[in-house]
Amino acid sequence: MYSAAILTGGRASRFAGHDKSALIVDGRPILERQIAELAQITSDILLVGGPPPARPVHGARHVADRVPGCGPLGGLHAALTEALGDATIVVACDMPYISAAFVRYLLALTGGADGVVPRTEDGYHPLCAAYTRACIEPIARRLADGRLKMTDLFDDLRMRIVTAEEIDAFGDCRRLLANVNTPAEYSSIEANKI
Fold this sequence. Notes:
By secondary structure, the chain is of the alpha/beta class. The chain has a single domain, classed as Spore Coat Polysaccharide Biosynthesis Protein SpsA, Chain A (Alpha-Beta Complex), CATH 3.90.550.10. It is built from 7 helices and 10 strands. The strands form 2 sheets. Strands 1, 4, 5, 6, 7, 8, 9 and 10 form an 8-stranded mixed sheet that branches. A two-stranded antiparallel sheet has the order 2-3. Helix 2 (about 70-80) runs antiparallel to helix 4 (about 135-145).
């Protein structure tokens, strides 16, 4: 069984603290788009970090960070600890174009690795990646030591790197991995420039 986790606990400091998962892309909130895609893979969808939603989100359960204030690595730890599946796809809440087919591909590659991460010319994409339970202890050690950089975790794991060429089999890798960090990026997505 697989699980899926959407990391919602970021401060969105480059977006004036706005809830990026609520941004409308192609007529739908990003979070709604993500849940629709992830629900094709699993019924175990977690919203990780941040305060619980004001209203329950259909098809997802809220999970608090177990080690607060540790950024995405803390969110990954909470996700893997609470997930029901042996492997979990972890995505940032500001990625409107993830697809079920691409996510399924990443999860399928976890059979021979602790983690599966896309890498493009922009570098690694650790917040659109698949991780197994084998990652929990290495993450816990890093959290205890205050070593919070996501990509440094890869030194402790058996990683499978997914290339841009592999990603392009599921659509334009720039679009699949696009995220909304700033108002300018949101405007670019809204103008369909990605």
